[in-house]
């Protein structure tokens, strides 16, 4: 091996007169020049004779570590994700409650506006409380019979003056005696 032929020395270092620039990947000398280059898709006889038990195992140390890390990550994130979902549900519940309160406010404001009308108040007083204006005639139906009278007067009530206790006692004995016959 001479220094002028451009071959490498036995130490593996390039010659001092060799170019120090990088060589492009496709321009390597000897790349693809082997006559027995393997074709893709063909097995070598050594691979074909490998027994089935010598294949890679399904569970490896890296696989177990990866699954463990994924489980740890899932357990770490489970609490915050659950709290986030509960917070979203609480926000939705509060928004629905707020909408219901807004509708109730609108209904009460409409009722207040309606009740501030004097005609409505007079109509409700006539219907609910049996009020009449001066000069109107009031007709009240009691037990299917019409009882008439002037506005503001009451029908005659039975005499409810208090009797002494002994008269009450004798009256109740007399009523019991008549009921037993």
Automatic annotation (TrEMBL):
Transmembrane domains' residue ranges: 64-85
UniProt entry keywords in alphabetical sequence: Membrane, Transmembrane, Transmembrane helix
Composition skew (Low complexity), residue ranges: 46-55
Database matches in Pfam families: DivIC
Cited InterPro entries: FtsL/DivIC (IPR007060)
Region described as Disordered: spans on this chain: 1-55
Composition bias type Basic residues, residue spans: 1-11
Top-level lineage group: Bacteria
Name this polypeptide is given: Septum formation initiator
């Amino acid at each position: 091996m001479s220094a002028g032929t451009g071959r490498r020395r036995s130490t593996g270092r390039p010659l001092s007169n060799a170019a120090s620039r990088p060589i492009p990947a496709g321009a390597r000398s000897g790349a693809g020049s082997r006559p027995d280059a393997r074709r893709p898709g063909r097995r070598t006889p050594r691979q074909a004779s490998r027994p089935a038990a010598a294949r890679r195992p399904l569970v490896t140390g890296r696989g177990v570590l990866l699954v463990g890390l994924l489980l740890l990550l899932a357990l770490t994130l489970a609490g915050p994700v659950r709290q986030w979902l509960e917070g979203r549900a609480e926000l939705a519940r509060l928004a629905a409650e707020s909408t219901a309160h807004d509708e109730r406010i609108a209904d009460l404001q409409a009722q207040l506006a309606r009740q501030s009308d004097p005609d409505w108040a007079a109509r409700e007083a006539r219907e609910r409380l049996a009020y009449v204006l001066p000069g109107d005639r009031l007709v009240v139906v009691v037990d299917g019979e019409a009882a008439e009278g002037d506005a503001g007067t009451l029908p005659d009530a039975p005499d409810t003056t208090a009797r002494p206790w002994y008269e009450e006692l004798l009256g109740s004995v007399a009523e019991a005696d008549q009921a037993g016959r």
